[in-house]
Write a structure and sequence with these properties.
mainly beta, 8-stranded antiparallel beta sheet, 45% strand, disordered N terminus, Aldose epimerase, isomerase activity, GH-type_carb-bd
């Protein structure tokens, strides 16, 4: 592979239209799935209230709308470089000189199952010069009357691989964000998380936190409770039209800061639960 192919291409900012939408419904909850646009949720509506920034509002950039899975890494990998099993690796630089949000958010996913209120999607990860490990990612969605559960997983193929998983929802700006993290990763001059963790600071944020309790968004008379089976969350609230609250299995630059190794055939999963209720405050 020649060095010219390693230059930044900023494809994370390239337009990505939603394409064909597949609707799931249960009670007053509606979810539109854009399998061809990175396996993302394009619309998320409860009692008619839209909770996500869509492709038109987000400017259609691939990283800027809906709720998409981040696999096999989440957030930025600094300069696209990391070491695994003692060997250096380089990832495509797709955003401001770094590798951001994985490989799945801009690739079409295959629909393995689609019912009225459930869906399963799959994505075979590449085995090439950029991502030499292969593997397969799976995405499961299940709606109930007031809840949505999304489960993202990745399974190593015939060789070991590193993995960090995440979800990146662009929520329309809430009236309130209820969030009590216990620790925060400080960011350096490049805006990337570092160690050791520190006490949380006040916002605005574009930071990774460790939080043990649920996170709640309040908007248009509704309360949306967010819960994950992992304790890492990235919160970005520096834009007036949206707030991103992103559950992750590890921090940004996780291949270096907190490496997680999958042996051949081993699986890593991340569950993201969203539950709606009326706001009584």
């Amino acid at each position: 592979m020649g060095p010219e192919r390693m230059l930044p291409v900023d494809d994370a900012l390239a337009p990505l239209p939603a394409g064909e939408l597949h609707w799931l419904r249960c009670g007053e909850l509606e979810v539109a799935l854009a399998a061809g646009a990175g396996g993302r949720v394009a619309h998320l509506r409860y009692q008619g209230v839209e909770w996500l920034v869509d492709a038109q509002e987000g400017g259609a950039a691939a990283i800027a709308w809906g709720c998409y899975p981040m696999v096999p890494w989440a957030g930025r990998i600094r300069h696209g470089t990391f070491r695994f099993d003692g060997r250096p690796h380089r990832l495509p630089l797709n955003f401001d000189g770094h590798a951001i949000h994985g490989l799945g958010f801009s690739r079409p996913w295959q629909i393995d199952r689609l019912d009225a209120a459930t869906a399963r999607l799959a994505l075979a990860l590449p085995h090439d010069g950029y991502w030499p490990f292969g593997g397969i990612a799976m995405l499961d969605l299940q709606l109930q009357a007031h809840t949505l559960q999304m489960r993202l997983s990745v399974q190593a193929g015939e060789q070991a691989m590193p993995a960090v998983l995440g979800w990146h929802p662009w929520f329309r700006k809430p009236d309130r964000l209820l969030f009590t993290p216990r620790a925060m990763y400080p960011r350096d001059e490049e805006g990337i998380a570092t160690l050791p963790c520190v006490d949380p600071t006040t916002g605005p944020w574009d930071d990774c936190f460790i939080a043990d309790s649920d996170i709640t968004l309040i908007r248009e008379g509704q309360r949306l409770r967010l819960r994950s089976d992992h304790d890492h969350w990235v919160v970005y609230d520096g834009t007036p039209h949206a707030t991103c609250v992103e559950p992750q299995s590890g921090p940004p630059d996780g291949f270096t800061l907190a490496p997680h190794r999958l042996e051949p055939g081993q699986r890593l999963a991340l569950t993201f639960d969203l539950a709606w209720a009326a706001d009584s405050t």
